[in-house]
Structure formats: structure tokens, C-alpha cells
């Protein structure tokens, strides 16, 4: 079992009397003023790991149940009955980078170094959401500042990309589709594919309680199958929303949060001083020009083309030669 170690600070000139060693990575070391954040958040000053003495004067050993980094914070869970949880939060105060060691009782005194949502999800003014080309009656996100782009997705119905790779996807299900995909086994394969992404989820346009009102299949069969899938793929949550409108809102905010996470992940790791582990990423689909874009370009270039119908091969080839991009679909949907 790993331990959180507290030792006396051997530096007599330091105002922080203790050294804290966190068993994460190669071992993170901080100078701190207290042995646990009981009534106030404790200021923690990060120092190089070699500052930990070869023969430390140990003040306290705290067995740990878990220690894990989550964004710009490190969650610590002690293996004891009281004062179990604490967190090291990397934040800014008075314009300077700082670290605070806080407990649930003191967590309001420091905020993690992340962008919190206001009116827009994650504060993003123009989120681009990829919508799978096979999606029927897709979400339009009409009330949000979202640009939707049709693209062939390897998994999920809605996704966001960062630096050319898919970072999150959401699979949408009605109740009937959920039950059908559960009984046929399709959902099992879908979750396996979604689990290959850094972040993914399934959103259901119905309440969980509606499962127990099903008549053509035993409700316990559906409930057991859902529970088994969540145990098998815990990284892909299945979220029940009351209706389609709320499912669309949840999807928008989930994808916006995932986009912000992907953007800030490297910076958070650098702040904490850890090296990111390689994460398999699915390449984002190449999004070519739309038929409308090619049609508008052709008119500006002096070509005579109809308002609707298929584009002549010569028009498509001329667009590709002028822009060096792949061909769009041959006709309007």
C-alpha cells in the first residue's frame, strides 16, 4: 500500500516546517505548513524531488487507498476512518501560480485552474461538433453557439476533435433503440469502440424509470444488461435524460467540456510536472467542402451551373485543382 509521507523540513530558514511527499509519478515533493488541511487550505510550495532527504525525519505516515491526478488537481484518499479525502490544487492567486492542499471542508478556498462554464458551455464561443453522416434527425444545437459539420465517424453520433484527433464522442439512443441494441448485442460492440477514445458517453432520451414500464421485454433483463455494460466499460457512462431536448443539451455541454479538457490537458500535466502517457487517438475525419461551397465557387469563377442537382465532374475537378482538396459529395442531400 502506498503512503503519503510527512517529514520535518531540514531547512531552518524556511517558514514551512514540513515536507510532503506524494507517491505519484517519480514522487512529488512540497513544502507545507501543516500535516493535513483540517480547518484551512494549506499552502504547498512544490520543490524538486531531490529535496526529499536521504534520511528523512518522518512526522507522519498516512496509508493511501488511492492517489490520482484529475486535470489540474491531485485527489488523495487516505485509508482511514476519518479525514480521508484531500486534494492538491494547482491554481492562480494574485497573478501567480500556486498550489493549495485542501480537504472537502476547505475546498471553497481554492479553485482549480480550469475554465468553468457560464452561459456558454465551457466558455466556448463557437464549438464545432462533428455529426455522423448516418445520423437521422440529428441534433441541431440551435440555441447554442455551435457549428455542426457532417462527417463519417468511426464511433458515436456526435464528436469533437482537437489537433486532428477525435477526443470525445456521444452515442445517442432513444429508449426503443437502446432496448434493441441491448438485446441484439450491438450496444456491446458500440461501447467497445467508444472506449478507444479519450472520452465518450451514451445519452438516452428517456428516464431510467421508463425501463421498468417496458412490456415486450422483461425490465430486469434490460437493467441487468445495462449494469453489466457499465461494469465492463466504466469509462463510457450511460446517461439518462428526460427527453430529447435535455439529451441534446447534455450532449452539447459534455462535448464542450471534453474539448476544453483536451486543450488544457497538456498544460495541466506541465503544471504538475508529470509526463503524459501516450493515449491512443482516433484520427478526426477529413472534412471536405460541401456541395454548396463548390457551387458558390463555380459561380464566382464564371461556370454556368444549375441551382440543384449533381455537379459535373469537370466542376469538381476544377475545384480540386484550385484548392488542392478532396472531392465533395456529388449532389445535394
Automatic annotation (TrEMBL):
<dbReference type="InterPro" id="IPR011335">
    <property type="entry name" value="Restrct_endonuc-II-like"/>
</dbReference>
<dbReference type="InterPro" id="IPR036625">
    <property type="entry name" value="E3-bd_dom_sf"/>
</dbReference>
<dbReference type="InterPro" id="IPR055370">
    <property type="entry name" value="Lsr2_DNA-bd"/>
</dbReference>
<dbReference type="InterPro" id="IPR006166">
    <property type="entry name" value="ERCC4_domain"/>
</dbReference>
<keyword id="KW-0238">DNA-binding</keyword>
<protein>
    <recommendedName>
        <fullName>ERCC4 domain-containing protein</fullName>
    </recommendedName>
</protein>
<dbReference type="Pfam" id="PF02732">
    <property type="entry name" value="ERCC4"/>
</dbReference>
<dbReference type="Pfam" id="PF23359">
    <property type="entry name" value="Lsr2_DNA-bd"/>
</dbReference>
<feature type="domain" description="ERCC4">
    <location>
        <begin position="128"/>
        <end position="208"/>
    </location>
</feature>
